[in-house]
Design brief:
Strands 3, 4, 5, 6, 9, 10, 11, 12 and 13 form a 9-stranded mixed β-sheet that branches. This protein has a two-stranded antiparallel sheet with strand order 1-2. It contains 9 helices and 13 strands. β4 and β5 form a beta hairpin. It is of the alpha/beta class. The chain has 2 domains: 87 residues, no CATH class; 224 residues, Leucine Aminopeptidase, subunit E, domain 1 (3-Layer(aba) Sandwich), CATH 3.40.220.10.
Length: 326
C-alpha cells in the first residue's frame, strides 16, 4: 500500500512537471522564484504543521527574487509585444493604412470610406440618408423578423416597435412588386413557400414613414432536410443588387451587420471577410456613375463586457488588404 501511494505521488509530480514545462518561460520563472523565496523560510514537521523562520542561507532567496523580477519583466515584454502586434495589424509592405479613432476602425477604398464599429445594429444611430441593410432568407418571410436573435429581427422589433406586422406586410408586398413572382420551394418537410432566390435585394425608401431607408438582402437559403445555409457567393450577388437599388434611389451611405454570420452557418471571421470583399467590389465598380461613399459594418458585440463577433486584429488586417493605397 505504501509503495502504491509512493508511486502515485511520484507520478503526480512527473505530470505536474510536464504541465509546468509547457507553460511560457515567464510562468516557469514565476513559480520557481516563488518557491525559492518561500521554501528556505518554511519548515514542515512530522505532524504537517508549518513554521516560518529566517532562512539559513540567503542564496536561494536572492535567486528567487531575481527569477521573480525576470518573470515580471518577461510578462511586461510579452504584453507590450502583443499590444504592438495588434496596433500594427493592418500596416506593413503592400498594405493600405488603417486608422482607429474612438473605437471606429476604418480605411478607404477609392472614394469610399469603410468603417467598422462594435455593438448592435439596432443601437447604431444613422442619418436619414443612410440605408440600413438587413439580411433575410430567400423567402423574405416573417421567420427572420420574428427572431429577435437575428440582425433583422432585433432591428425591426426596435425600430418598428408596435408596427412589426405592418412592416412584414410592407416587406412582402414590396418583395412581390419589385422582384416579381417567385418559385414554390419545399422549405421544410411540412411546409412549402414562395422563394425569390438568394442574392436578391428589396429597398424600402421610407418604410412606414421612417426617414431611414431599409434594404433587405437575401443571404440564406432553406430547403427540406438541409436547413438554413449561407454562402460567401450570395454576399457578392446581394451586394450587387443592393448597389443597383441604391443607385436608383440616389443613396450612397449604408450601415449593415456582418452578413451571413447568423444561422447560415458561416463562421463570423469568414463572413466578415466575405462581406468586406463584397463591399470592396461594389465600392470600386459601383453602378454606372453611382459609387458608395460611406459603408459602416457593425460587428456584433452583445455588451460592453462581451467579446466582439470578430477579433479586432482580423478586422484591421482585412481592412488593410482591401483598402486603397494612399
Amino acid at each position: 500500500m505504501v509503495l502504491w501511494e509512493t508511486f502515485r505521488t511520484i507520478n503526480a509530480v512527473i505530470e505536474t512537471l510536464k504541465a509546468l514545462l509547457k507553460q511560457p518561460y515567464w510562468i516557469i520563472a514565476l513559480i520557481l522564484g516563488a518557491a525559492l523565496v518561500v521554501l528556505p523560510c518554511v519548515t514542515v514537521d512530522k505532524d504537517s504543521r508549518w513554521a516560518s523562520h529566517p532562512p539559513s542561507t540567503f542564496l536561494p532567496v536572492v535567486v528567487g527574487f531575481a527569477l521573480l523580477l525576470l518573470s515580471a519583466g518577461a510578462f511586461a515584454l510579452t504584453l507590450w509585444a502583443s499590444q504592438r502586434a495588434d496596433a500594427s495589424a493592418g500596416t506593413g509592405p503592400g498594405l493600405s493604412p488603417v486608422t482607429e479613432n474612438h473605437g471606429i476602425i476604418s480605411t478607404k477604398i477609392g472614394d469610399c470610406e469603410v468603417r467598422v464599429v462594435e455593438g448592435r445594429l439596432e443601437d447604431y444611430v444613422t442619418t436619414s440618408g443612410t440605408a440600413v441593410v438587413l439580411p433575410c432568407n430567400e423567402y423574405f418571410d416573417d421567420r427572420c423578423a420574428g427572431d429577435v436573435r437575428s440582425a433583422l429581427g432585433a432591428y425591426v422589433n426596435r425600430a418598428f416597435e408596435g408596427q412589426v406586422d405592418a412592416f412584414l406586410s410592407l416587406m412582402k408586398d414590396e418583395c412581390k412588386r419589385r422582384l416579381g413572382p417567385g418559385t414554390t420551394e419545399q422549405k421544410t418537410c411540412e411546409e412549402s413557400a414562395e422563394s425569390f432566390g438568394v442574392g436578391r435585394c428589396v429597398l424600402l425608401p421610407r418604410p412606414l414613414g421612417r426617414p431611414s431607408p431599409v434594404a433587405l438582402v437575401s443571404t440564406t437559403t432553406q430547403r427540406a432536410g438541409q436547413g438554413l445555409a449561407a454562402r460567401i457567393s450570395y454576399l457578392f450577388e446581394g451586394m450587387h443588387e443592393l448597389v443597383v437599388s441604391l443607385a436608383d434611389a440616389r443613396l450612397d451611405e449604408v450601415a449593415m451587420p456582418v452578413l451571413g454570420a447568423g444561422k447560415g452557418g458561416v463562421a463570423a471571421p469568414l463572413a466578415f471577410v466575405g462581406t468586406l470583399l463584397a463591399v470592396a467590389e461594389a465600392a470600386r465598380y459601383g453602378q454606372g456613375a453611382q459609387r458608395l461613399k460611406l459603408v459602416t459594418i457593425v460587428v456584433f458585440k452583445r455588451d460592453a463586457y462581451a467579446s466582439p463577433q470578430v477579433d479586432r486584429a482580423v478586422v484591421r488586417r482585412a481592412l488593410a488588404l482591401v483598402g486603397t493605397h494612399a
